[in-house]
Amino acid sequence: MGELLFYFGHFILICYLCSKISKQNKHMTPFYKQTWFIGGVAALAIFALCFIGINYVGQPDEEKGPDVEDMVIATTQTNEPLISIARQQGWIDAEATEMSSVDASKVKDLGTAFQNSSLTSFNEFQYFVGLEEIHAGAFAHSDQLKAITIPAYVITIDEGALAYCPALQEIKVDTANTHFDSRDNCNGIICTWKGDLKVVAGCANTVIPEKVRYIAPQAFAGCTNLKKISFPERMDEIGEEAFKDCQALESVEIPQGVRFVKPGTFQGCSALKEVTLSKSVERLQKDAFAGCSSLTTINCAKKYPPIIENAFDEFKATVYVPNGMTNTYYRDKSWKAFPTVKELP
């Protein structure tokens, strides 16, 4: 409306000027008067076209999703849990026995539809191309889920999206995705677009790629079949509760570059026997090793003791420290609760 008034005002101004010119030129011939009139009409037409053009350009393009080939992706025979959830969510008719790729492409938000689900495999997930975000806990506690493929158009995966999926063995990302990948068949979700690489979610079979610098909070939480994990030689951060309740994990070596073992990082890792802290570790934060009832060995490479902030709830482990630093650890208020301190072999 504002643009229309703008152009109409200019037209009135032109007409007014033409009128003034006509009055000042009393001897103007009819030909010239017609020329001024035609010029005024032409100006109005130009202003009208400009108004229409600006409004047309200003209109947002009609939202268009990706082209999807219409095909059946699941039936009650091939994936009954998915069909059941799709019915409940209204993605397909209540009596439908199959789901198509077109049905899947129309889904814009999963919410918590798949929490505690009985899915065993969800490679059909790759057809949910209308999704941009997978929310925190979206698949949490799906105890039987073994395989999943992340769709191409997902640009956000929140913390703990795949937490507490103990049976998970295979994680893939659609190769068309520009924000995440599962490079080198790592069986994990790697965030690729925010600078350094970050593991967003993993499973018992995950192999962390060498260039990864971050592990997201709850990335491996509840992965009860994870027995060992190897980190790159250097990392920057391991997120809170990243390995919480990994009950089969037996040993960990915190890599160089990590300064804080964050709250709850290894909480509830009841089989954890040995922890090695690199020279860069400065603090062990709240509940970092709480519930690690099998912990017998802590290797500290740092000469000066890292600060402990209620990281342990048991102090039975033997602490191994650099040569000549035994008394320093014994006297430190954070470490004196451990009865046995020895020099590293």
> What is the number of E strands?
20
Whole-Å distance between the termini?
Answer: 82 Å
Cα gyration radius (Å): 33 Å
Question: What integer is the average pLDDT?
Answer: 87
Broad shape:
elongated
* SSE class: alpha/beta
Main sheet strand line-up: 8-9-10-11-12
Helix count from the secondary structure assignment: 5
Name the helicity range.
Answer: 10-25%
Low-confidence stretches: 56-64
Element string (H = helix, E = strand)? HHEHEHEEEEEEEEEEEEEEEEEHE
> Major β-sheet, in short?
5 strands, mixed
**How much strand?**
15-25%
Task: Fill in the keyword field for this structure.
single chain; 345 residues; alpha/beta; 5-stranded mixed beta sheet
Describe what you observe in this structure.
- The chain is of the alpha/beta class.
- It contains 5 helices and 20 strands.
- It has helices at residues 2-24, 30-58, 80-89, 101-105, 326-331, and strands at 72-75, 98-100, 121-122, 133-134, 147-150, 156-157, 170-173, 180-181, 189-191, 197-201, 212-215, 237-238, 251-254, 260-261, 274-277, 283-284, 297-300, 307-308, 318-321, 340-343.
- The strands form 6 sheets. It has a 5-stranded mixed beta sheet with strand order 8-9-10-11-12, with no helix packed on it.
- A hairpin with a 7-residue loop joins strand 8 (180-181) and strand 9 (189-191).
- Helix 1 runs antiparallel to helix 2 (30-58).
- The termini are far apart.
- 36% of the residues are buried.
- Mean pLDDT is 87; it is low at 56-64.
In short:
The chain is of the alpha/beta class. It has helices spanning 2-24, 30-58, 80-89, 101-105, 326-331, and strands spanning 72-75, 98-100, 121-122, 133-134, 147-150, 156-157, 170-173, 180-181, 189-191, 197-201, 212-215, 237-238, 251-254, 260-261, 274-277, 283-284, 297-300, 307-308, 318-321, 340-343.
